[in-house]
Every structure is written in C-alpha cells, then in structure tokens.
C-alpha cells in the first residue's frame, strides 16, 4: 500500500464493487415494483444475468490481451450508463432484459480484469495482494449493499441506483489514476 499505483487500484476496485452491489442487491425489488415482473419472469431475468455473466467471464480474456487499462476504465463506465438507462427504461420488460444481459456480460468481467491487473502490478506479492483485494472487495460489497439498502428504504430506488452509478463513475476515474501511475512504473497495456 506504499505505492500510489496499488492504492489507486485498490480504491478503484473497492468503489467499483460498492457501486455494483448498491445496484445489484436491489434489482429484485426494482424489477418487481417498476418493471412489474412476476416470480417466473424475475427468475428468468436473473438467469439471463448469470448466463451472460458466464459468457463475459469466458471472453474477457480476449479483451484483456488487447488493453487491460481500457477494460478497467470502460467496465464501470458501461455499468454506470446501464444503471442510468435502466432508470429511464425500467418499465419496459424487453429493454430491461437487454440491459440486464449486458450487465451480466460486463459486470462479471470486472473481477477477472482486476485480478489480472493485480498479477501484473504485484507479480512478487500476488498472494498478499490477492488477499488484500479479496478483503477490500468483501468490505465494498457489504458497504455498497448496506448504503444502498439505507437509500432504498428512505429515498427509493432512484437515488439508490444513481448513487451506485456515481460510485461506478468514481471507480472509472480511480482506474484512470491507477493507469497513470502504472504507465510510469509498469508496462500494463
């Protein structure tokens, strides 16, 4: 944690997971209240996220060979954009289904990208760095879901989702900062 590269990277991954889980944790009530899906449609939408998540995890490796830095920045930007579009189009089941499929595709690639970043950033300390990253991710998931829950209970889904989108945008900015330090010290493409 003495390296600015590691600090900004760990902050970026933490904020990414906070934003993701501030939104993802409250998809079910959103889908039930706003999109007005029944239980079987809800199950199909969640399955859709999972199936496209598997596809995203399988194919992200090809993108990572092209540009790791780009994936680390574009992923939270796309996720934030999807949240904003979901707020606008959430009453439409077809639009929501497409957005959730893309969410699954993109969101599951984030951990693969960040652990690739970790291996390139800390090749001699990958185990210690991995332990730190897992702890940060777990804390971030807890904080994101908790803060999202407080916002959802007291302000509704709109502010919850906007806060999640805002955190995702901050994650992209932190990823850019980490990339600037990485460019100076490492050859992370």
TrEMBL record:
Membrane topology classification: Multi-pass membrane protein
Protein's cellular compartments: Cell membrane
Entries under InterPro entries matching the protein: MFS, MFS_dom, MFS_Efflux_Transporters, MFS_trans_sf
Recorded superkingdom: Bacteria
Record keywords, A-Z: Cell membrane, Membrane, Transmembrane, Transmembrane helix
Transmembrane residue ranges: 6-27, 39-64, 70-90, 97-119, 131-152, 159-181
Domain Major facilitator superfamily (MFS) profile: 1-183
Pfam families: MFS_1 (PF07690)
Descriptive protein name: MFS transporter
Species in which this protein is naturally found: Pelomonas nitida
Source taxonomy: Bacteria, Pseudomonadati, Pseudomonadota, Betaproteobacteria, Burkholderiales
């Amino acid at each position: 944690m003495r390296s600015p590269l590691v600090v900004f990277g760990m902050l970026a991954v933490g904020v990414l997971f906070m934003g993701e889980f501030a939104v993802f944790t409250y998809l079910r009530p959103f889908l039930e209240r706003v999109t007005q899906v029944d239980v079987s449609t809800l199950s199909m939408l969640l399955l859709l996220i999972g199936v496209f998540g598997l596809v995203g995890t399988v194919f992200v490796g090809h993108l990572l060979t092209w540009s790791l830095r780009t994936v680390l920045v574009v992923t939270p930007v796309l996720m934030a954009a999807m949240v904003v579009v979901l707020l606008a189009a959430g009453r439409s089941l077809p639009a929501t289904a497409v957005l959730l499929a893309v969410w699954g595709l993109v969101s599951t690639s984030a951990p693969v990208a960040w652990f690739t970043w970790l291996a390139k950033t800390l090749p001699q300390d990958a185990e210690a760095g991995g332990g730190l990253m897992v702890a940060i991710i777990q804390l971030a998931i807890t904080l994101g879901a908790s803060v999202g829950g407080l916002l959802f209970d007291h302000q509704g889904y709109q502010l919850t989702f906007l806060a999640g989108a805002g955190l995702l945008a901050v994650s992209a900015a932190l990823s850019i900062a980490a990339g600037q330090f990485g460019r100076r010290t490492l050859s992370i493409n």
